[in-house]
Amino acid sequence: MTEAVADAAPAIRRPDLSEARLSRRYAAERRFRLWGQLAILAAVAMLGLLVFSIAVKAIPAFTQSYIALDIVFDGDKIDPAGTRERNTLRRADYDGLIKDALKAQFPDVSDRRERRALYGMISSGGGLQLADMVLEDNTVIGSSQRVWLTASDDIDSFIKGLIPRDVPEDERRVKDIEIGWVDTLEASGAVETRFNTPFFTSGDSREPELAGIWGAAVGSFFTLLVTLLISFPIGVLSAAYLEEFAPKNKLTDLIEVNINNLAAVPSIVFGLLGLAVFLNFFGLPRSAPLVGGMVLALMTLPTIIIASRAALKAVPPSIREAALGMGASKVQVLTHHVLPLAMPGILTGTIIGMAQALGETAPLLMIGMVAFIVDIPGGITDPATVLPVQIYIWADSPERAFVAKTSAAILVLLAFLVLMNALAVVMRKRFERRW
Amino acid sequence: MIRKTLSIAAIAALATVAGQSAAEARDQIRIVGSSTVFPFSTAVAEQFGKSTDFKTPVVESTGSGGGMKLFCSGVGVEHPDITNASRRIKSSEFETCAKNGVTIVEVKIGFDGIVLANAKGGPDIALTKQQVFQALAKEVPMDGKMVPNPYKKWSDIDSSLPDTKIEVLGPPPTSGTRDAFVELAMEGGAKTYDDLKALRKSDKKAFKAVAHSMREDGHFIEAGENDNLIVQKLEANPNAVGIFGFSFLDQNADKIKGANVGGVEPTFENIAGGDYGISRSLYFYVKKEHVGVVPGISDFVGEFTSDKAWGDEGYLVDKGLIPLPTNDRSAIRQSALGLQPLTM
Which residue of B87, B134, B203, B260 has the smallest Cβ count within 10 Å? Predict the structure, then answer.
C-alpha cells in the first residue's frame, strides 16, 4: 500500500496481494499470538511458583508426631477422695501423670535441666488429653494404658526430619540428649507420625502443635454469612431501583458517582467507620462476626451494586417491552423476567465480592477481630477471628513450627477461594439463559 | 424473590438486635495492647482457659499506644479489662485514664532484649552503643558540628569492624521495638558525645530529634513489623544486620547470631542479669473497676504472676520472656493481687 501511495500514479488502488506482504501479515499474527501465549505462561508460572512454594512449606503442618507413653491412671493422684466428681477429675494434675510416665521410661535422668527437657518432649496439651479421657470414661482410673500423646513442636520438627542431626549442638533446637530419647522411643515403636486432624478441627493455640484453623474458618463463615445477608438484598434492591425505576436526574447521577467512588475506598476506612458507628455509637460487641460482617458488607456493597446493575442492563429491552406489552406491572416485569435473567451476573458479582471480603484483614483490625481467640465461635456475637487474620497472627509468631502452619492456613484460604469461584462458575452455567 | 430478600433483611435486622443485648453482659476477659507482650499474654490466656472454668480471654494485638487508648477510654463492659504494654504507661495516658474514672493496677512481667543479629555465615560483629549510633543516625557530630552521616561501610566507623556496607533492617516507627531501640541504643550512643550530652541537658527536645532520627540514605531499611520476615532476609543476605526481639534470635539460633553490644553477648542470662544494654521492661495494666464485674480477672492476674508462668522455669520463659529477679516477682505478685492502684 505504501508503494502505491508513493507512486501516486495509478488511478485505481488495488490491495497489495504479494507473497511478501502476506507472509509479513501472517508473521505479525504469529508474533502476536506468541506474545499472548508468553504472557499467559508468565502469569501461570508466577501463580504456580507461589502455590508451589506455599504448598512445599505447608507439607510439615499436615502431619503431627505422637509419642506413646504407658500412663498409670493412679486413683490416689487423680481423685484421692474417690468421689469421681466431675470438677475434681477435671482439675487433677494430669501433667504429673505424664511426668511420672516419662520418669519411669527414662529413670536415669536426674539433672533438673535435663528433666525439664524430658518433660518438654510432650506437648503442654497432653494433660488436657488425659483429662478428656478420664472425663469420658472414669473407669480408666486405676488402670495403666498406652496413650499416644502429641509431641511438642521442636521434637515434632525433629521427628519429621526438619532439624538436621549433623549441625553443632548449640545451633540446634533439639539437643543431643533429646535426640537420644527420641531414638530410644523410636526403636521401641513409640513414635508415630499421623495425619494432623486436630489442625482442621481445633481453634488457635500458642503451641504450634495444638493450633488449628477451625476456629478461624467458623469465624470467617459467620462473618461472610452476615455480609451476604446484609449486602445481597440491599445491593440487589438498590441496583434494581437505580436501573429500572429511578428517574435520571442530578440526584441519581450523584448517587451513581458515589457508589463508584465507594468501590475504590481503601478498606481500612470501612473499619474506622465500623469502630465509630457500630461499636461506639450502637454499642455492638467487639471482635464479633456480626460487626465484622456489617463492616465487610459496607465494603462489598458497591461491588454488588455495580455488578448487579451491569447484569440488569444486559437484559435485552425487548424482554421488558414484551412483558409490559402483555400487561405486566413494572414490579412484575422486574421480579418475573428481568431479575431471573440477570441473576447469573448478579450472583457472579456477589461471589466475587464475597471472595474479596474473605481475604480482608485491614477493616477487621479496628473492630477487634485481629485477636487471639481459642474458643470456637458458636454464633455471630461470640468473639471470633477470620482466616486471613489467623494467617497474619501465625506469620508473626516466633515459634518456628508456625512457619508451616502459616503456609497451611494460606492453602486452606486458597481452597475456600477456589471453591467460591467454582461456585460462581457453576451458578452462572446453571442459570444462564440465551436469547 | 422480593419476599425472600425481605425476609433475609428481617433476619439480619433481628440479628442486630440480638447483638445489642449481648453487649450488656460479658463473662469473658478482654485484653488489648502491645504486640510484643501478645505472645506471653496469649500463652497465659490459653493456659487460664484450659485450667479454670472461666472462658479463655480474648487477646487483641493493637500496639502499646492503641491498647492504652482503648483501655483508658472508660469503665464498662464495652471497654477492655487489661492492656499490655512494652513500655511504661505515659503520664498523659495516666491522666486520660484518671479522667475517665479508670483506676490502674500496674504489673511488670519481665524483660525483653532487643538484639542486632546477622546470618551465621556473616562476620562476627561487636559494637558499642556509640558505634550503633554512628552506623544508624541521620546526622552525627564530627569536628564539633552535626554532619549528614558519612559512614558507608562498617570499617569506616572502626577498623575492627567488617569491611562491608552498612545495611541494617529494622522495624518501622509504629513498632514498640523501634521505640525501645531508639530510646536505649540510639540515645545511649548519642549520650557518649559530650556536645550531645550537653544538648540533652539544655534542650531535651533537640537532643531527641538528633538521637531519634534514623538515616534515610538506604543504609537503614525499614523492613516491616514482622520479625520473621527480617530473619528470612538476613538469611538471604549475609552482610545485612537485623534489629528485633530476643525471642526471634532464640528461636532461630541455627540461622542467625547476635552481635555483642558494649562487649556483652545477647544471651538469656545477660539480659536477665541486666548486663545487656538494650533491654526493656514489659507490663500489663489491670482496670480495677472491672475486677469482680467481669469474672476471672483476679484469677487471671494470679495465673500470670504464678511461678508456673513467669517463674525462672515457667512456660513464659519457654515463649521467650526474660523473667524478673525472684524478689521482684514476689513483691509485684503481692501488690498485683492486692490490686494496689498505680499513682503517678
Answer: B203
